[in-house]
Automatic annotation (TrEMBL), chains A, B:
<dbReference type="InterPro" id="IPR036148">
    <property type="entry name" value="MmgE/PrpD_sf"/>
</dbReference>
<dbReference type="Pfam" id="PF03972">
    <property type="entry name" value="MmgE_PrpD_N"/>
</dbReference>
<comment type="similarity">
    <text>Belongs to the PrpD family.</text>
</comment>
<dbReference type="InterPro" id="IPR042188">
    <property type="entry name" value="MmgE/PrpD_sf_2"/>
</dbReference>
<dbReference type="Pfam" id="PF19305">
    <property type="entry name" value="MmgE_PrpD_C"/>
</dbReference>
<feature type="domain" description="MmgE/PrpD N-terminal">
    <location>
        <begin position="5"/>
        <end position="243"/>
    </location>
</feature>
<protein>
    <submittedName>
        <fullName>2-methylcitrate dehydratase PrpD</fullName>
    </submittedName>
</protein>
<dbReference type="InterPro" id="IPR045337">
    <property type="entry name" value="MmgE_PrpD_C"/>
</dbReference>
<dbReference type="InterPro" id="IPR005656">
    <property type="entry name" value="MmgE_PrpD"/>
</dbReference>
<dbReference type="InterPro" id="IPR045336">
    <property type="entry name" value="MmgE_PrpD_N"/>
</dbReference>
<feature type="domain" description="MmgE/PrpD C-terminal">
    <location>
        <begin position="265"/>
        <end position="429"/>
    </location>
</feature>
<dbReference type="InterPro" id="IPR042183">
    <property type="entry name" value="MmgE/PrpD_sf_1"/>
</dbReference>
Amino acid sequence: MSLSKQLAEYVVSLKYDDIPEDVVEFTKLCILDYFSSAIAGKDMPPIQKIEEMVEVLGGNEQASLINGGKSSVANAALLNGASSHIVEQDDIHKSSIIHAATVVIPAALAVAEWKKLDGKDLITAVVAGYEVCFRIGEAVSPSHYYYWHNTATCGTFGSAAAVAKLLGLSVEQTVHALGSAGTQAAGLWEFIEDGAMSKQLHPGKAAMNGVIASMLAEKDFTGASKIMEGRRGFFEAMSDDYDAAKITEGLGHEFKIMENSFKIHASCRHTHHAMDLVSDLAKQQDLDPDAVDKVEVGTYQVAINITDDEDPQTIYQGKFSLQYCTALALVKQSGSLDTFTEENLWDGTVRELMQKVEVYVDDEVDAAYPEKWGANVKVHLTNGETVELSTEYPKGDPENNVSPDELYEKFMVLSKGIDESRAEEVAENIMTLEDISDLSMLFPHNMAVK
Amino acid sequence: MSLSKQLAEYVVSLKYDDIPEDVVEFTKLCILDYFSSAIAGKDMPPIQKIEEMVEVLGGNEQASLINGGKSSVANAALLNGASSHIVEQDDIHKSSIIHAATVVIPAALAVAEWKKLDGKDLITAVVAGYEVCFRIGEAVSPSHYYYWHNTATCGTFGSAAAVAKLLGLSVEQTVHALGSAGTQAAGLWEFIEDGAMSKQLHPGKAAMNGVIASMLAEKDFTGASKIMEGRRGFFEAMSDDYDAAKITEGLGHEFKIMENSFKIHASCRHTHHAMDLVSDLAKQQDLDPDAVDKVEVGTYQVAINITDDEDPQTIYQGKFSLQYCTALALVKQSGSLDTFTEENLWDGTVRELMQKVEVYVDDEVDAAYPEKWGANVKVHLTNGETVELSTEYPKGDPENNVSPDELYEKFMVLSKGIDESRAEEVAENIMTLEDISDLSMLFPHNMAVK
């Protein structure tokens, strides 16, 4: 049986009543965390540009846009997907290297709202979408990740799976949806060299492409039956070391969404290990940056590939500079969204300390990746002392988890741009999602100001 | 200077008045030939399914749909792109292995109509779009083509370039447009194993994605500046043997659109060499299929990869079976659209002869590919005679070209499904395109029935 068919059977057979209560609760936190980032990002320039384009193109009013108003489900998936991937605080699944929320949730939300489905349907679709894209990401990582933005490429399958579930597609139709998803999968890392806005285009387009794939499949529009394992399929074309067994091991018996990590710092996840360590150290010891002679950060190769940048020129590039993030976290004792400002980008103390941060590949840490996204940090002080610190799990990983209260707090910080009473209502509705029948009530602009 | 910037400078500087008259005339034939295939395909199931989805999604009425009515430029590019790539008679550029019409022309048409531009603008944009995608296809072929559908992947750049020209983007904006195009480039050959409808989704999405790329670039939405040659860019990720020099050699001094080939037979281009040879032979000698003992077809490796199929089950699969196409052309002495019928798919004589067709890689022919798409054919007769035939250029190649009259005849055959007077008017308007100011008048449904 093809891999697509096995995934399709899983998607079709998944029922809300079979999802354990802790998984339901965790999925609601994933949706809350999606909105944290989507609301924080909605007024930023790349998102405004996409919003303007969506408005020019137009579309039937099917689904709420994060910036207000409604448009087609394709447009809603595009805009709401892009919006959640800009402040660099959206969730991450380590072993597949996927930010699933920013692709799966906007696609599922748009279609569920359009079809007047309820909170339980949305939760079920999100669980299915995460499961599918995490498995595909695990199968092709890490080699796929060198060129490809897994969130976009593998995310397309997750979007299609979630939408297939919501549209009630048959197994055969779901296979076609996965085929059409895989053959649209795109998103090259090259943009990172320029800090270009492709970062937001990728998840938006992945969400939109998954919606298109499943809407077409509903009409029996056919796709490749072996889009993953076929000789000219996704695995062979886009990965050097794929492991097809990851698609099916334990499928139907586990809930991979529970492996999802949440981000507390507002930068690339590959910088969090060091930020956790140095901000904790700085807080505990009330460390003066001037007392630091050198900081050595040893981590895994992929982190170096993505975040070795000695001289970021924009806030955005700063979030992808391990040197800058490490210095910032040590000086400001925090990595929250409001520390990544233009002022702090050019802060003399941070800039000076940044020159003293050396990053390198630590073979032991690298060998444990991607199961563990760790770092060894040595802080050499001017008094001759050296403090050694290490972590295997940045904060927010399942092994070092954050509480619902912390995620609620994060939501309230990230949704500062909207009316507070509306933000509170959004959070309340999400945390009681299984009782919500009108899913437009997850969008702040659809609520009255109290 | 980056490759994108060099292409962008070419696109921005190209002027209608600098295009020689023979190139203008040829470009109009490309547009006529686009409409041949688009009209012939418009009512077929995959296109109807996309049309239904486009209608459900909705969009502002900016550009004509090939099936009637208007929708957004993104939707028009999607539908009108898909429609022209189903009867397997759209144009092909050998050395880039791209069917450019089905991607570049619908995108350019949609945006030109929307912006109320004229025929000269459209011609200029099409010339630019062909130039860009042909060069990119040449740079990555043939290795890229094993996994990737060049028409879709490289075509996305061509769509973006044509639209960038029409929107009057700056050099910098055009670089961003190419970046956003390349990072959306997708389309795996895996669908061919199932004869799936992805074949039509690919060019439609490529056209649409190029439109999105340039619309966003107009708003200064940024993309990778070195999307082609960057270390995590299109070349490195999606090709084993790219030649970056192809992008710039002779750029601005030649018109690659003149290298375009037209298809007379309604099947995959990789079957045409043998079809030309055996149909001519059968006509000349009034050959009885029963008199044939064996047919050996020696051709290039890529033709074998794509078209070695001993037992096609659908008309569509038949168009991708070298064995079937060779037998059909010998028996019916033609390969036109009306020979690819369900009746002929199961025709006893064709099926019997097909068993006698042996296909193999001819090393000499293979070495000349992709500059020459040739074949050596040996027809062994039951009387012991053997007829040897060979060609380097299937009919419709620049080296073995068809006349404007033949392309007009093809257009009239392929547009049989619409009112004849409308078809004639479409053709007349296209052949006087430099004088046309209302581009909606290229669409049959916008004309009165005479």
